[in-house]
Please model this.
Amino acid sequence: MSTVLETEKTPYLQVLNKDGDVVNPSLMPDLSNDTLRELMRRMVFTRIIDQRAIKLSRQGRLGFYAPAGGQEASMIGSQAALNKDDFILPGYRDIPQLLFHGWNLTQWILFSRGHQHGTAMPQDMHALLPQIIIGAQYAQTPGIAMAFKLRGEKRVAITYTGDGGTSQGDFYEGINFAGAFNLPAVFVVQNNQFAISVPVELQTAAETLAQKSVAAGIPGYQVDGNDILAMYAVTKEAVDRARAGNGPTLIEALTFRFGPHTMSGDDPTRYRTKELENEWEQKDPLVRFRKFLEQKKLWSEQDEEQVMEDAKNELNDALKQADAYPKMTIPSLIDSMFEVLPDSLKRQKSEYTGKEDA
Amino acid sequence: MAQMTMIQAINNALDVELGLNKDVLVFGEDVGHNGGVFRATDGLQKKHGKDRVFDTPLAESGIMGLATGLAMQGFRPVPEIQFFGFVFEAMDEIAGQAARMRYRTNGRFTCPLVVRSPFGGGVKTPEMHADSLEGLFLQTPGVRVVIPSNPYDAKGLLISAIRNNDPVIFLEHMKLYRSIRAEVPEEAYTVPLDKANVVREGKDLTVIAYGAMVHTALKSADELAKRGVQAEVIDLRSISPIDIDTIVTSIKKTHRAMVVQEAQRSAGAAAEIIAQINEHAIYHLEGPVLRITPPDTVYPFAQIEDEWIPDSKQVLAGMDKALSL
Model:
């Protein structure tokens, strides 16, 4: 691998071509057959959950949802390169990474519906809830990473944004702070080429997004974001480098979202051509990896059906649990504002409980 | 005990807390080797090390993002925004992020951080240095806002703020940094957050002020006393939340009130104070609650700031009016 600091043009890193053939053996990660199968299982699981989430959202059974279909390789390949105690600062589309880092489907459904308890992540899950303010997760990542460095913990902070997010000030401040303090952080840009309706060409005149790393003086790589093995390999190298005390990395994953921006009324046919969508369907990350595994006799139609069945059952169970979950209340909302409630809030709480001594 | 200016008291508070708690971190632009543009952090890096007291790149949002991340991981960051007029750069990380962390994660993560920042007029600073922007954070759920008016309170309130487990905005009036000396204990002590302080007792009029206006109000009250009229002056200390109980107790005695602030009429805390007085003490009032403030303009260029900021004559005239209505 070489960085944009060393070459004129950012290299485009790929392990598998669209037929599932290994085109770059030197980048091929050393993964067991079980792990390879697990990566496929996670991608299929995510695709099914995504398809169901879109339907559930239309039925009003889910709230806010940003479809992830098409981006499974960049999301799951990068998350799989982490340790359990590494910390994820996700954007709002990055639900799959959280689900495989310890969030459960019930909490995700509660979060989507706007329930506070969806975001109370387990103590042993190291992640923040999806960030709505684009770029803020990049500004916070150096803080998490500096905490690990100060305590001498061999942990890494990883964060995600989209192509549009690279235009934010916080994007640059985040990578620059991490560089200046030599922090164990990995910054991922999932370039799905559209920020709602605005194509990446309108975000910047830069030829790649990975080369924005040059402005922070840190390594940057552009990766085939629909190639899970390339995403895993490049993220793993960045994570290892960070863990060894050698600073942050920026990774651009070139990918495409099959669905709309969010389920809140976005219609991608207004800004994307059928030709472009067809072109990217040919690059479906699941198809490519399935071909690779089938060639190695590691994946069958039966395996695939089993994952689909599991995903549907797990989601149905989670929906039942979420439906039965107690509703939020104003007093509990007030209680979550401060450790020690100011008198003014105590008074306001009593207005909702009808008790003076709230 | 030692005689200290407010800047020395602040330096001493940081020194004491850095010594007592290894999770306390002090950082910002020029706070490390240089000891801060006002020397608030002078000597702290040398004493406590570069891992505890350090300089950052010049980017306020980055500084507050760093603080938010560190706070989420259990550190107690005390970041500095060099002048509070620059807070707009960091507005999302304070109001959009740190202030909401406990709520949005249902307590899984908290932000025990203190944003220290100088503000305040009367020292001929360039643009965007002196603006009184505390009102923005009075309107931000999830943060406390503290403004000390003297060295003793500055140290005690800053230690309380650092030990508090939620975000605190700690605003330091530049004109007060070196203009008063007071007895300040060398060891750690706290002044409670959320509590106002009656700095002058009186039975005829309640004057509510904070920051440099406390001293202006005290001067006016002394003038008023020459005529046999006694104003009670309350130093608010905490701008958010407002200690309405102390204010109401005073109004029950005086039956008249006014608010003095350095922020513009529609900014600051005055409107909120008056609204709360209306809710809690209207039947104890014999007249309307006035506010003495600068006009609703941008903070002026240095040449006219002394006319723009309320002085003791203007406050005295306000007192006369409040007593006559």
